[in-house]
Amino acid sequence: xxxxxxxxxxxxxxxxxxxxxxxxxxxxxxxxxxxxxxxxxxxxxxxxxxxxxxxxxxxxxxxxxxxxxxxxxxxxxxxxxxxxxxxxxxxxxxxxxxxxxxxxxxxxxxxxxxxxxxxxxxxxxxxxxxxxxxxxxxxxxxxxxxxxxxxxxxxxxxxxxxxxxxxxxxxxxxxxxxxxxxxxxxxxxxxxxxxxxxxxxxxxxxxxxxxxxxxxxxxxxxxxxxxxxxxxxxxxxxxxxxxxxxxxxxxxxxxxxxxxxxxxxxxxxxxxxxxxxxxxxxxxxxxxxxxxxxxxxxxxxxxxxxxxxxxxxxxxxxxxxxxxxxxxxxxxxx
Amino acid sequence: xxxxxxxxxxxxxxxxxxxxxxxxxxxxxxxxxxxxxxxxxxxxxxxxxxxxxxxxxxxxxxxxxxxxxxxxxxxxxxxxxxxxxxxxxxxxxxxxxxxxxxxxxxxxxxxxxxxxxxxxxxxxxxxxxxxxxxxxxxxxxxxxxxxxxxxxxxxxxxxxxxxxxxxxxxxxxxxxxxxxxxxxxxxxxxxxxxxxxxxxxxxxxxxxxxxxxxxxxxxxxxxxxxxxxxxxxxxxxxxxxxxxxxxxxxxxxxxxxxxxxxxxxxxxxxxxxxxxxxxxxxxxxxxxxxxxxxxxxxxxxxxxxxxxxxxxxxxxxxxxxxxxxxxxxxxxxx
Lengths: 334, 334
Prior knowledge:
The structure is a homodimer of 334-residue chains.
Chain A: E1 2-3, E2 15-21, H1 25-36, E3 41-45, H2 69-83, E4 86-89, E5 91-97, E6 102-107, E7 117-125, E8 129-131, H3 139-143, E9 150-151, H4 154-157, E10 166-170, H5 173-176, H6 179-182, E11 189-192, H7 201-210, E12 214-215, E13 219-225, E14 228-234, E15 239-241, E16 244-248, E17 251-253, E18 266-267, E19 270-271, E20 284-286, H8 297-318
């Protein structure tokens, strides 16, 4: 059932089996499985997730490669609702571990916000990451290319950059190192630091050895038309020719709401999980980009399957087994 | 490119980066990723895999729940071919480890078979399992219900059995134990052993305690119409009423071709793999049902992603990095 500030009273006293923070591909997979295990679950989705940016989902078996992120997210949300999951548009502010349950505080609405608290036995952290993009005065200019011909994920889109002139936008030395992986797909790489950070002489020499020019002036604007990049203009007036780009500027991790939870093991910003996507906390699971491993739709979807299945197993094992009462006295038929 | 006995000469001297044994969901995912990494891969598919039996794929995010296995397999095969994978209909008889390469011997054609040998750097075992079904004289009677209202996977289809009268067809004690998981979905369980194996007094007592009748007579035929089960007739004349069924009779593992490989770690019939779907052999990967873990489409698809990515990383790290030759002497532009 679709929840909103208008009808959430109907569910505010529900003890959910699981609350899924994030309605991206991993969260939707978890919700579909939870619902099909007959468990009560609530997806809380803030909107504008990473997969919404995808114009084409090219490497997920069974979907037309031109399927956009928004299409598949809408479809998956409908699937989850149809199997019986609840779905709420809101922003999870805080999760408090109450021992047997979690209290999940949600902000609903940008204006006149309300802050209801939902409760669940398990929490699935599926809120993912958001890639940093170069900040320009006119952000629409960035959005005109990001997700089309300027990519954020080399594994996803390297193929589509094959042997093209590419800009790599990076602002730390370790991000610049992406050039030495990107060159599997194309060697025609120009490195742009957008005026951020400084580049060591060692890195400058390495880039020169590979023939990859380095531009340290900030970006003025992306050039091109109809989402097809043709180059990048820097504020010093230089125009760098390129038909594609990779932004490697790190990511923001959406895991603030877990910061108050004791006993979570992190590896940098990623949650450490086991093969069932369980974190070091027995009632918190983490999916996809938030956990260690590949940031791929297929991985998040499988994580959702695993997390939901483990939660079902736990709940099932603690439940009273169902007997066929009317049969209890029937003799065994041979 | 679609290969057959007619055109395989064009590829018989190709050293593939990877040969994918099995064109199910995991194998197709691996092939799509391999092709998009620009690697040469060959899928060898014998046909009639487990996912072909699915009439509805209900829990894979983004697909209509009424999508059949054959639809998604055909679609995925087309995807893989479009990105540049090769595909051959044939049966892998044997894989020989030659040190740096594998020799993969394939049987093509049921009559006048030919036995070409293909070579690759890596092998991805994606040939899955096949569920054992009760053997009746008229197997068409089994196929009329299997995959429709008689299921083989409780995680996949338990939801669709909810509170229905169900037959559990099992022939060892451990398979009969599925009743005590199936009762999460429905307590109206009749256990049929199809005349195979014997049931201990302890198990008989436990089933009686739960009110689950046990029938040890062999099955004569499934009853119903238009794939909708209404009951099962046993050869002793008993009719067991049921609108759904679960077959829990074990599976055949399609891994015969790996038996000659040294150094593979098995857990029972499952291959042990790491988080990148790599077996204990550095150049052999295993996906989905062949490896330990959940037998779910989403898991196999993610395994394919991981295996292809690790193979790409290995090959990339061993390759000569591509430089932008014409730029080598260009001074760094600031």
